Each structure stands twice: as C-alpha cells, then as structure tokens.
C-alpha cells in the first residue's frame, strides 16, 4: 500500500503523477520533481505561484515559510543533512533579494541548492520587480542559470540540477514570466542526470602523501565538510599511520566513539585538543579549508609542521595558508589509495597513538572535562553550567543547530551529538539570524531526532517570524536563547579596545522571549538558575509537538575566546 505525501497542514498532497504539463511553469515543476526533489521551501507570490503548485501536484512537499531568507536557510540545512539537492521557490525581484543572505551562506558552503526564482520578462523594463538577477547571484558566489524557452526548458532545468548535484553548487535558476506562460512542448528530453564518479587522486600525489605520512611521528588528520563521506577510509588510514583525528566545526561528530578523536580543531578546541594538534609534525586536511577558524590563524601549526590539503576543488588547495602538498581528489579515494601504498611498504605504526595520549584524551578532551568557576548569580546563569546541564537533560538522539554570535561556542562544544548528521553549522557568511531556520530545515531532514537550537538574543530577534513555521510544522524544537540583552561579540570586542566606548548601539532592553514564544503558540520558560531546568524535564515528559523557547538569562562571559580569535582576522 502506498501513502500519498503529506503537506505541512496534514492534508494529502496531490497525485504524484500529474497530467501532461500545459505550460513551461508546469513543465519545470514536473521536471524538478522527476529528478528527485522531495521538498521545496519558499514564499509564494504572483510570479512563482504556478510553478510552486506544479511542484506540489507532482508530489513535492512544500514548506511555506514566513520570509524568503528563512526559506533559503531551511533548504540549505535540509540539503546539508540529507546530502541531496533542495529547492527554494521565490517571487521575482524582492523575493530573491530577501533570500540573498541565505543564498550566500549556501553558496559559500558549497551546498547543493536550487533557487527557483521567478523573473520579470525582458521587455518589462519598467516593472517594479525588474533587476539584474544574474548579477545578484554572482555577487554572493551562486551560479546563475535561466530557463530560456519552451524548447529548452527541460535541458535548462537539467543543467541547473546537474550543477547543483554533481558540482555541489548553489544555483539560481531564473524563470522569466513570459517563458513560464509559453505552452509546453508535446515531447521533451527525458530528465536524467548521471551521478558524478569520485575523482581519484593522481598516483604521484598519493605517493607523495604516503611518503610524508611515513616520515611523520605525530600526524593529525583534520576532516572538514568534504571529508564527511569518507569516515571509514580516513579512520583506516589514521589507524595504520598512528594519526590522531579531528574535525572542523562543520563536521563535528564525524569521529565519535574513536579513542584518538580530538573533537573540533580551531577556536572551539578544548585546551587539550589545541595542545595535541599544536604538537603535530604533519597535519593533513581532508576536505577542510584549514582556514583561520580551524587553525587559529595558524597558531595550531608548529614552525616545522608539514601541511597537506586534500580537496576536490583545485582552487581550494593552499587558498588560506601555505601548504607542502596539495592533492586534488575525493577524500575517500585519496585515503584509500594512500593506505594501499603504506600497507604495501610496511606494518602499521604507533605514531601519535600512544597509551599515554589515549589516557589523556579519555579524561580531558571535552570542554566539560575542563573545570570552570561558576560565574552565575544575581538572577543570571553561567552559560557553561547551563549548557552542560542541558546536555544531560536533552535526548542523546538530537540534531543541533547553532546561530552566530558571542555565545556560539557553548552549544557547539558543550552539547554532544550522535554523529556528523547531528550538527548543522551555517557560519560561512558569518550572519546572525540563520540559526532558527537552520534548525527547522535540519529537523525536517532528520525527523527521528530532537532538534535543538543554540542562539543569541540578537539572532533570535532577527528570525523569530520562523517560530510560526516551527509551530505549524509541530516540531518539538528546543530553542536555547542565550540572552545577554546585547550584541555580545561587539560589546566585548570594542570594550576590550576601549573600556570607555559608547555601547548604546549594541545593548538593548531585556526581552521576555518565553512570553514571545507563547505568543507564537510555542511553550516558553525563563531560566535564571539550574533549578529552573526542571521545567525542561517536565516538557520532555509530555511528548511535545510544539517548540520550547528557553529564555536563558546568561551572565556576561567577558568576551568568548573564540570571538577574540575571530576578530583578529577582521
């Protein structure tokens, strides 16, 4: 027995096998559905009404968001977690500009995403919606494409999908209004896109990498977003080589359960992780940019440390820092080929994987293992104490999304996740306000896990309209609002430079986020001390079907160390 797809209000979606398309708008919608697009996020206006309904008629679930920026970020998160292209539908002109920050975040993160953007007809030069949509896409590093005519509609759509899926790019597919209305051709190209085969490294490059690993006494492998599909291959190479393993923030959880896992490398590194990474004589980045975040502006790299970078994109090799070897190739294939060469030349080595190092990692690699003096009091809770307690209370099967800001290290490091699919980190554009839609998109990608959001008061204010979307979707989303009534990063950064600086532009009256949450139809509580978290336990016991907003009145931390690291690069 088959079950029809359901829409967000619980009604059955339309027949997944619609009638032959009458217009190009319907043809494009059916083509995208036939390629495997299963969800579309967006805000419907006159320009994208027909194509969105065509998608729904073809069986694509449509998620109506409150703002196009939220739609783009939800789709970005959904694609990151599922690993397949997602779709956004927006109105021409202002609908696209509203989505631009989310598009930029996705593009900079190489998320396979298609923005289906209505577009004013070329002759409508005086339309209120007329603009250069191609230039806008390029300006945030997305790829502009267009449906040019009825005759080319399918091949134009296939080209956009292939770029998104096989090249992992964010594509803005413009759909002019005059083209949308054209009659669909009676016959069209069969919409198929073969999957891209893994790119194997050059044999010479694999030999050079094998030689460097063989010479190293204390190797460390750092996996980034590009290494997420190569866990077993990287671990096999690390075990044979005696290498410790770590991840960039976006790949948190990839090596969970491994005795020699250091966790996140970079600004979020625990003191022990930073010490051990700094002691490496070889660092190999697998699908990892090795940028200022992951390497703390290079301070995690010793003076005599050799650096290798493995990436599919040749332009990424050495883009952020000098490297001794750049290997263009798929991370899994590169690790496997290198292991084959090393295994043929000699037995596995202990390297950095000594019993003493294992013991230190077991007892002190987590931030929770690092003692802190609780700074709470006077009606405000220490964010470290708060987050560690929530880590114990919330279900282990969770998916954590983190907004940007001074608070961000607390949920990133104190909240554990089951694996790399349990952490969604949209930080490539460094925009606050993306956390809530990120959490919603991630929740839809993994409905088997409890979604948890870590956000600041500033970011939550920016995106709070999407709390309505979470309520409509009946998501049991835990929203932890680290509320210090300020843009904390700016307060601490400029306050350090000038203690007498006027901070009135970045400080605000306190907000009752618990009340705001209840106003949207969510549950809301205020937390000022550990005892208040009993309300979270009671909420969990009730098998919730709506979000919980935790207004955590946190004490100022005097400026988080990871933001101090960040501002050095700006």
What would you note in describing this structure?
By secondary structure, this protein is of the alpha/beta class. The chain folds into 3 domains: 157 residues, 3-Layer(aba) Sandwich (Rossmann fold), CATH 3.40.50.970; 162 residues, TPP-binding domain (Rossmann fold, 3-Layer(aba) Sandwich); 196 residues, Rossmann fold. Helices cover 37% and strands 16% of the residues. It is built from 23 helices and 18 strands. The strands form 3 sheets. The protein has a 6-stranded parallel beta sheet with strand order 2-1-3-4-6-5, with helices on both faces. A 6-stranded parallel beta sheet has the order 9-8-7-10-11-12, with helices on both faces. Strands 14-13-15-16-18-17 form a 6-stranded parallel beta sheet, sandwiched between helices. Helix 1 runs parallel beside helix 7. The N terminus is likely disordered.
